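Record type: monomer structure entry
Structure origin: computed from sequence
Chain ID: A
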Amino acid sequence: MVNLEVRTNEPVEIVDITDHVQEAVWKSDVTHGIVLVFTRHTTTGLLINENEPNLIRDILDHMEELVPRGKSYRHNTVDRNAHSHLRSSLLLNPSVTVPIDAGELQLGPWQRILLVELDGPRHRKVTLMICPCERETV
């Protein structure tokens, strides 16, 4: 198990963690298998998509439209972050799994692993489970 520490700087932000995950895979010496990437926070989520600035802005804008900040959510009597919990639970996943072959993440040409911060800025922990698989011969 590998733990990544991710520092976010904004209340809502998307951080590309692909290079950190790939580095951990290289250090693991697993050449064929999978990596499970898991966020340990209820107000973050993960997704695989392009890290293109206009798309990132569209994703963040769409979240604001679907689950607006400042609405009178019941959870806001406890903390003022109900919108963060709702966005995470409705729009994101706490984990993604990526195949590994020849020691490389098997992502598409534009795919990146993105951590979505919904209640920052904070220090976040992302856990990686890098598991070898037997290579099937045909």
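Annotation 1: Strands lie at 2-7, 13-16, 32-39, 44-49, 95-101, 104-105, 112-117, 123-132.
Annotation 2: The mean pLDDT is 95.
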